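hiii, so i know i said id send this last week but things got crazy w the move. better late than never?? heres the sequnce for the chain we talked about at the cafe, plus the structure i predicted for it. fair warning i was half asleep when i ran it
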Amino acid sequence: MFRTEGFKTLKTPVRVPVSNTSEERWIGSIRRELLDRTIIWNERQLDRLVRDYVDHHNQHRPHQSLGQRPPAPVDDPAGAPPSTVAVLRTTRCDGLIHEYKNAA
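okay and structure toks below
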């Protein structure tokens, strides 16, 4: 079936536990943080939620390997926070995920 559609089948190594670790970690993250907590009604909604989650994952969510920084931060934080701090909350994925940042 795959050959008739023009797909190429890639075989993974047998019994190699670390062959797809980054993909498995990302799939586990999106499953635990988004898909296990949402009822998906159609493909359009799934596509919208996954795109929103990918933006959250790359621009806001802290990554341990990067020193708790996101891979592609939207803005660089200032040196020291001001004495009074106003916090802005942004919702993602239809209110399932909340992002917080200091107001300028």
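btw The chain has a mean pLDDT of 77. thought thatd interest u
miss u guys!!
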